[in-house]
Amino acid sequence: MARDVIVPALGESITEATLGQWLKKPGDAVKADEPIASLETDKVAVEVPSPVAGVLSEHVVAEGDTVNVGAVIARIEPGASAATAATPAVEDRTAVGKAEAAAPPEPASAPADSAQSDPVTLSPSVRRAVLEHGVDPTRIRGTGKDGRITKDDVIAAAKSAPKPAEAAATPTATPVIAAAPANGRKEERVRMTRLRQTVASRLKEAQNTAALLTTFNDVDMTAVIDTRNKYKDLFEKKHGVRLGFMGFFVKAACMALRDVPAVNASIEGDEIVYRDYADVSVAVSAPNGLVVPVIRDAQTLSVADIEKTIGDFGARAKAGTLKLEEMKGGTFTISNGGVFGSLMSTPIINPPQSAVLGLHRIEERPVVRDGQIVARPMMYLALSYDHRLIDGREAVTFLVALKNAIEDPTRLLIDL
Predict the structure, then answer these.
(1) How far apart are the C-alpha atoms of 403 and 406, rounded to whole Å?
(2) Cα–Cα distance between 157 and 169 in angstroms, integer?
(3) Catalytic residue from among 146, 239, 312, 387
(4) Of 40, 45, 62, 356, which is most buried by a Cβ count within 10 Å?
(5) Phi, psi at 204, each rounded to 5°
(6) What are the two backbone dihedrals, phi and then psi, of residue 158, each rounded to the nearest 5 degrees?
(7) Which has the closest alpha carbon to 15: 151, 141, 194, 188?
(8) Within 13 A of 11's CA, how many CA atoms are on the CB side?
(9) Does residue 415 or residue 399 have the better pLDDT?
(10) Which residues pair with 125 in a beta bridge?
């Protein structure tokens, strides 16, 4: 008897998700606890494991569908093998390549590796590459996990495709992807991920609710760069993690938050909530966009502990294994657009937080020191804040305290 695969509990207050991608297709053998699908929630992607070993017999929902916690998304025949499993009775609605059903059958003598006979499931990035290069995904042998097609597979197939003259002499199957218009202008419609929908909603909510204002300052990074260059090898040898700039900024921000508590506060109804702790949210890159995990009690951590935590967040964000609870409850956010080359920005707060610090790229600029014009590695700092709670004086005081700590890292050691 087929075993239902249901949407697992996704965390407190989360009742639904979007089926982002099928990792297995009907007819595939699966092991117990092996991921068969990826769900997108408001914050992270969650893999759905198989409850039993057997063969995936049916996809009940399609990629892009919204599913509730507890809903059935697939069925598995326990104990069956791929060789003996019956052909799935229900068509896989998420597969690409249904047009092959109307195409003439391949000759019985055709080589086994001339084309993939099974429907092909493509990720959005791979689908975009297929459209750009105009290749037939059913004729690409995937090198990714479980034989899935990767973007590199598409590019390699495009490079090895026969020239127009050769193609005219060699009959091919009906292409799955429609040919580009004569004028070369193409469009692609891709459903917004649940994460992107949530980001859009929350950012617009912040603009509609908070009285947003941004204050700028700049900071001379000479002292931090010299400190990092001097101790980075010893630091990595002792702590097993590279010494970056974020450790300095998180530590300096915690000191400035203590001096200016309004920046770490929030508005709840007609009350202001002040905190004696700093749960600092840090933006890190993930395959589906930026996510913002939280460094808990950052004010108690050393620079080494902060760097270890951020490094762990970054690795697990890329692997898609961050937990929902790790992205809840931040009191202040730091976003480093400088890693992408940003010179200056006005970041938007993440409600119910009241402030966000934007870091930017470091570049040499002429500044005056002791009456002389000299070149210094400078960075612009931007503090966006809710003016309903934080006055301009407090915002400037916060940035000056941060600037002083970065320009003289000794302050971080003696708590000034």
Answers:
(1) 5
(2) 19
(3) 387
(4) 356
(5) -70, -35
(6) -65, -40
(7) 194
(8) 17
(9) 399
(10) none
**What CA–CA distance (Å, rounded) separates 255 from 13?**
33
pTM exceeding the 0.85 threshold for the entire prediction: no
DSSP 186-253: -----PPPHHHHHHHHHHHHHHHHS-EEEEEEEEE-HHHHHHHHHHHHHHHHHHSS---SHHHHHHHH
Q: What is the mean pLDDT of the chain?
A: 80
Nearest to 82, CA basis, from 49, 54, 113, 58: 54
Domains of the chain with bracketed CATH: 1-94 (2.40.50.100), 102-191 (4.10.320.10), 195-414 (3.30.559.10)
391 is catalytic: yes
What's phi and psi for 46, nearest 5 deg?
Answer: -125, 130
Q: Establish whether 360 is a catalytic residue.
A: no
Contact 405, 414 (CB under 8 A): no
Q: Which member of 233, 391, 408, 415 is catalytic?
A: 391
What pLDDT was estimated at residue 176? 45
